[in-house]
Amino acid sequence: MITDRPYQIEAARRVHELWADGARRVCLVAPTGSGKTHMATMITEGERVLFIAHRTELVSDKEKIPGSDSATIQELSCTGRRPGGYSVIVVDECHTVGFTPEWRKVLADYPDTRILGLTATPERADGSGLGDCYDQMVVAARYSDLIASGHIVPCRVYAPTKKIERGIAKSITKGFLEKAPDGAQGLVYCSTVDQARSAAADLRRAGVSCEAIWGNMPDRDRESAVDGYRAGTIRVLTNVFVLTEGVNFPNASVCVIARGCDHVGTYMQIVGRVLRASPGKKESILVDLTGVSITHGSPTQDRIYSLEGKPIRLDKTISVTTCM
């Protein structure tokens, strides 16, 4: 039985309070590993819920809201289907909302339905905020709170001394082998399919079981690689724009970034994949081969969020220790 955490109870109370005060569209913000889906389940108990996401993997996730109906935005947009009778629409990874006309059209067709958006990063891919899509925001938990309570793990960062504008500081294989503890599973983020495939081959030559995955590869091959990773028979997955958000790999503890991240939201989503707590996992490791952490800060540094202006800012009242 899952026990409701105090911050989850408080977040649910605040969302209900905002809805009661007339705010129809509420954005719920909390880091990866905080239990956003569980909070949505608490908030929508007794309601008829439509769960919408932008990828099939997200709506088919076993952790989706029990009893809810689900659909992808692509399905609703392409078919024109608008299932009715829902009192609440829950939008997963809601920072994607409003970035495309399809999202705007679908949500506009539910003018009287309450909207609950879920995200760890309330920032679109172009760096803009979500104030045109949501009336109010509830920040459920901070990174420091979740680390203190053991719900996510700290992150040790290895990075060059300055940001690298072109290329990477060292090879992906060298970076992983130097910094990953024995047996630790890793995720590698690449900028191109060629880079991902080349890195996977190089890691295999070094004795590391590894597969590359990307968006338009055959579904069967991608599912096989992901299943192998979950089972532990594959130690590393290299990827291109596939494992950035919404995937749950508690066993992953090493993140290698070998691509640029212009906006902090993308950076936080990527590193969030290795922050989840799991038995025996004491910390996560970021091997930053391009220096993006120099721009965006430590991945577990607390942030200040806003629907307007700059949507994600570092909380500079929190000190960060840098080791040589």
Topology:
Blueprint: H1 6-20, E1 25-29, H2 36-43, E2 49-53, H3 56-59, E3 69-72, H4 73-79, E4 88-91, H5 101-108, E5 114-119, E6 136-139, H6 143-148, E7 155-158, H7 172-179, E8 185-189, H8 193-205, E9 210-214, H9 219-231, E10 236-240, E11 252-257, H10 264-272, E12 284-288, H11 292-296, E13 303-305, E14 312-314
Parallel strand pairs: 1-5, 1-6, 2-3, 2-4, 4-5, 7-12, 8-10, 8-11, 9-10, 11-12
Antiparallel strand pairs: 13-14
Describe the structure.
The chain has helices at 6-20, 36-43, 56-59, 73-79, 101-108, 143-148, 172-179, 193-205, 219-231, 264-272, 292-296; strands at 25-29, 49-53, 69-72, 88-91, 114-119, 136-139, 155-158, 185-189, 210-214, 236-240, 252-257, 284-288, 303-305, 312-314. It is of the alpha/beta class and 324 residues long.
Short summary:
This protein is an alpha/beta fold. It has 11 helices and 14 strands.
Q: Could you give the count of β-strands?
A: 14
Strand content: 15-25%
Radius of gyration from the alpha-carbon trace, in angstroms: 20 Å
Shape: globular
- Helical fraction equals 25-40%
What would you call the structural class?
Answer: alpha/beta
| Spatial strand arrangement across the major sheet | 3-2-4-5-1-6
Order of helices and strands: HEHEHEHEHEEHEHEHEHEEHEHEE
User: How many strands, what sense, and barrel or not for the largest sheet?
Assistant: 6 strands, parallel
Task: Compute the separation of the termini in Å.
Answer: 44 Å
**Sequence stretches where pLDDT stays below 50 over 5 or more residues:** none
Mean pLDDT comes to 91
Q: Please give the count of helices.
A: 11
